[in-house]
Amino acid sequence: MDNIKMNRTAVHLLAEWDPFHLGAEHYDTETADVVAALQSIDDPTALAKVIQETYEHSFEQWIPIEDCVAISYKLLAIKFEAKCII
């Protein structure tokens, strides 16, 4: 899996997540920010904090850190799968 495919898979996962039940099309900016952060973050807790802060900043709504950790593990699984397949 190359970076482009990894990014598309991550974008799709975040769109499906839809933490505020607004519909996938409402998170383009947040998705881009989180996928960009995913490139340099390998720690699920650190990524979860970025996710929480990004969405909270945009929507002025709080997401429980446990929810953010759960999605961060899924995103990191996509990232590590991309790195391991040659």
From TrEMBL:
It holds the Pfam family DUF1871. It comes from the Bacteria. Gene3D superfamilies: Apc36109-like domain. InterPro entries: Apc36109-like_dom_sf (IPR023162), DUF1871 (IPR015053). This is DUF1871 family protein. It comes from Lysinibacillus mangiferihumi.
